[in-house]
Design goal:
eight-stranded parallel β-barrel, alpha/beta
């Protein structure tokens, strides 16, 4: 009955807000990322780092630039413990999206391959589910799809989002603490909304909610809800086998990340293992808007593209049409924009105003690409 449902929601919310007992284990792995690979050698400092990343902290994410740099370079466990830690001509993708929507939605890799063949840079927006509320999230997904998003990343709100900066942390906190958004709520919303979308959706979630559900069960639920891919930022490459198997059983694609500190040989290994596209993190740090894109991204992009024929999308710190256009000029097959869109959607005067502001920014980004 109602009381049973309330108890279930309370348990799910509590698990996502404060973490189950497995959260301690996850923080031992946290932030190593697909580019890390230190496994169980991570020092005790990592375990305590997750507790300092709440959005309500006075300076969320402070200290994690050094952490991320070390984690994704494959540094030793002791070092981790001590830290605490690509021009292509513009080509419209409207026809491609229209053709896809006439039948079933492409897989992520199919969509990216079509865009690459057409010399079109993919626009991949990210939003946080439940901010400002799930009803607005559903409308936002539809608006993103209709407004030119080639692939959409949908973030599941999580209490210890170590890869995320203040804007996304705050959005996740609002979704969890103010709206009590659970994983089941997010998947139910997506299941209702996905039939209306022309863009494949990649779920972005940390590992703990997956572990709570069980890998195979989670992947099956995500696929049933309409997801096409999965991105889990806090698992090292060496520990993604189970996730990959779960994704393959369910028909999902598992997107992996590389960072500026990933050694070139490891970069190639990750690129070969990644499905859908390869996510190139543009900076050694957390997500968030930046006034400029690091100059070394062009070289990183060329290094990565020399080791794979898969599409490479650049994200973290990309917030404006000018930055997106610059990254496209360097040869990137995709540009990922998160915090700037999340801010417009969740921090405006009202949900309607947030949707309007998000659409306006999306249009600028689409025109730039």
């Amino acid at each position: 009955g109602d009381s049973s449902r309330e108890r279930e929601r309370a348990e799910q919310s509590a698990t996502m807000v404060v973490g189950a007992s497995s959260a301690k284990l996850m923080r031992l792995r946290a932030g190593i990322g697909q580019a890390g690979g230190c496994g169980a050698r991570v020092g005790k400092g990592v375990a305590s780092a997750g507790a300092t990343t709440r959005a309500r902290d006075s300076a969320p994410g402070v200290g994690f630039a050094a952490l991320t740099s070390a984690l994704h370079s494959g540094s030793s466990g002791s070092r981790l413990g001590s830290l605490l830690r690509k021009a292509r001509p513009a080509s419209s993708s409207t026809a491609l999206r229209a053709a896809s929507s006439a039948s079933s939605v492409d897989s992520v890799s199919e969509r990216m391959a079509k865009l690459k063949e057409a010399n079109t840079c993919a626009l991949i927006p990210f939003i946080v589910a439940g901010d400002p509320d799930l009803e607005t999230t559903a409308l936002a997904l539809e608006a993103l799809s209709e407004g030119g998003a080639d692939v959409i990343e949908l973030g599941v709100p999580y209490s210890d989002p170590l890869a995320d900066g203040p804007t996304i942390q705050a959005a996740a906190t609002r979704a969890l603490e103010e709206k009590h958004t659970t994983l089941d709520d997010v998947l139910a919303m997506l299941k209702k909304t996905s039939p209306k979308l022309k863009s494949p959706v990649v779920l972005f979630t940390y590992y703990n909610p997956i572990l709570k559900k069980g890998i195979d069960a989670f992947c099956a639920m995500a696929k049933d809800a309409g997801a096409a891919g999965l991105l889990v930022p806090d698992l090292p490459l060496e520990e993604t086998d189970a996730i990959r198997q779960g994704c393959e059983k369910a028909g999902l694609e598992n997107v992996l990340l590389v960072t500026p500190t990933t050694p070139k040989e490891r970069m190639s290994t990750i690129a070969n293992a990644s499905q859908g596209f390869v996510y190139l993190v543009s900076l050694a740090g957390v997500t968030g808007t930046r006034t400029s894109v690091a100059g070394n991204v062009e070289g990183l992009l060329k290094d990565l593209q020399s080791s794979t024929d898969k599409s490479v999308a650049v994200g973290f710190g990309v917030s404006s049409a000018e930055q997106a256009q610059l990254i496209k000029s360097w040869g990137a097959e995709g540009v990922i924009v998160g915090s700037a869109l999340v801010k417009q959607l969740g921090e405006s005067g009202s949900p309607a105003e947030g949707l309007a502001n998000m659409k306006a920014l999306l249009a600028e980004l689409r025109n730039a690409l």
